[in-house]
Design the sequence.
């Protein structure tokens, strides 16, 4: 019988990371490739694999920060014109050693409902988050105005963008967050 414990451990211990509580340590290339490979094994109807990823590390994060600043300035956010907020977009990107775009590239011609392709990308993102946890990384899926902006998507060559995942090593273990009891969420139909 297969040992399910490692997978269940990653599911149970995955936590959303605080960007300001990450160490600056780089993530090794082989770990990044393992995390990205896990994403490619997500379920996808008809094996269409509608996901693409752009990975920003090292000095490449400056390019992403500039892009986020421009995208935020072009957004409808109330403070979009504020130069300090735009500058913050540039600086915050440097707080995590890795940023990975979540791009939706629907194979043409479209054969499936749009939502099915979106769900496949979401499953790929969850695989990434779980693989990151299994490798001792902290992570978070973020989708603020700059991170889903059409301007950001166009710059990446992505037809659609569903946000970014940032990765790094946490300074401390994020606390457990309670979950509702199973009986509050599940209806059993046995007959």
Sequence:
């Amino acid at each position: 019988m297969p040992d399910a414990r490692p997978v269940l451990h990653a599911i149970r211990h995955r936590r959303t990371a605080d960007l300001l509580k990450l160490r600056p340590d780089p993530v090794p290339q082989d770990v990044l490739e393992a995390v990205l490979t896990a994403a490619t094994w997500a379920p996808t109807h008809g094996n269409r694999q509608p996901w693409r990823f752009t990975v920003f590390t090292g000095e490449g994060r400056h390019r992403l920060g500039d892009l986020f600043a421009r995208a935020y300035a072009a957004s409808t956010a109330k403070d979009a014109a504020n130069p300090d907020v735009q500058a913050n977009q540039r600086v915050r990107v440097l707080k995590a050693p890795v940023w990975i775009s979540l791009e939706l590239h629907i194979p043409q011609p479209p054969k499936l409902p749009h939502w099915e392709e979106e769900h496949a990308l979401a499953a790929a993102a969850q695989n990434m988050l779980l693989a990151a946890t299994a490798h001792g990384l902290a992570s978070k899926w973020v989708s603020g105005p700059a991170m889903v902006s059409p301007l950001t998507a166009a710059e990446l060559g992505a037809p659609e963008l569903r946000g970014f995942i940032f990765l790094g090593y946490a300074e401390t273990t994020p606390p457990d967050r309670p979950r509702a009891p199973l009986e509050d969420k599940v209806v059993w139909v046995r007959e």
Q: What stands out?
A: Strands lie at 22-23, 51-52, 55-57, 98-104, 138-142, 160-170.
